[in-house]
Structures are given as C-alpha cells and as structure tokens.
Amino acid sequence: MKIEANEQDLLRGLANNDRLAIETIYKDHYKMIQTMVLSNSGSSDEAKDIFQESMIVLYEKVRSGKFELNCQLKTYLYSVCRRLWLKRLNQIQRSAPAVDSMENVIAVEDDVELHQRLNADYHLMELAMNGLGEPCKSLLQAYYLEKKNMVEIAESFGYTNADNAKNQKYKCLMRLKKIFFDQYNKNKG
User: Fold this and answer.
1) Nearest by Cα to 24 from 60, 55, 49, 47
2) What is the domain range of residue 112?
3) Residue 49: alpha-carbon gap to chain centroid
4) CATH, residue 32
5) Do residues 27 and 67 both lie within one domain?
6) Residue 2 pLDDT > 60, yes or no?
7) What does the pLDDT look like over 123-155, one tens digit per residue?
C-alpha cells in the first residue's frame, strides 16, 4: 500500500520535533481516539494520556529509522491507542478484583512478585524524575499529579499559550522516558 506523501512528511516532521507536524497529527486524529476511549468506559483525561502515549510510541518508532508505515497513519494510531487502552482497562480490572473468587485470594505469591517489580519500577521512575531537572520535573508534576490543565500550566510557567506548554510537556516526557529506560536497562543488564 502506498502511503500518502503528506503522511510521510508528517512522520519526518515528528521525528524532527516539528511543532506543525505534531499539531497536525493531534488535530487530525485525536478526536477519533477520544471517541474510542470515551465509548469504552474512559474519560477525556484518559483519552489524552492514551493519545500522548501513542504519540511517544510513534515518535520512538520513527526516530529508530527502521519504521515503515504500511497503513494509513490514522489506522496505525487507532490500533496503538486501542491496544494501550485495552491494556489499561485490563490493569484497572486486575487492581480491583472481586473477592468472591478463591483464586484471587490464594494466588498471593504472584501479586507479591508483581508488587515488588512495580515498586522497583516506581523507584526507577522517581530517580528518573529527580534526574530530569527543572522546569520539566515541575511541569510534569503539575500536569500529572496536580491535574492542572495546559492553560494553567502555561500561565504558571510563563509559556505564551497552552500549545507551547503542551509541546514542552511532550519534550519533557521524551526526556523522562529516555532517562527512565537508560536506568531500567542498566538495572536489568
């Protein structure tokens, strides 16, 4: 299947952190993802998170230089978001199990091992956040922990508008991801 030149341009722009390319991908495809998440027990904030995660996946693939898009960009993003959303729903279900099943009560060893792995990952994330530096650390905390919206963040951090704050948040997430996985791979190796 021949992919439109426009989509190839968008992918090149994404790989080069071109603001216009990133905004175009958001503008063209976010509503579709929001609809999918909202119609499957999700919220607007969860839709934003899922779309942001899919953009990171796409960014990493494009930056690798080995990525070849063999479908429409909207199809690729939809499938990545759908997979991420199903994974998140599965995690939510697992974290709130029904107590009426003895299998859930007896299989404690698995939960302890998972809990230990998650604690180790949380510790690595804390180290990564501490290594991130300012203003990224405060910006990500404002968005994810304090639940501030992009307009509030733009005002508090002195960005000219919410779009600039969103772009900075994206760059901070990319840096955080790199720091985290560098540490993660060191600890696993």
Assistant:
1) 55
2) 108-189
3) 6
4) 1.10.1740.10
5) yes
6) no
7) 777 888 888 888 888 888 888 888 889 999 899
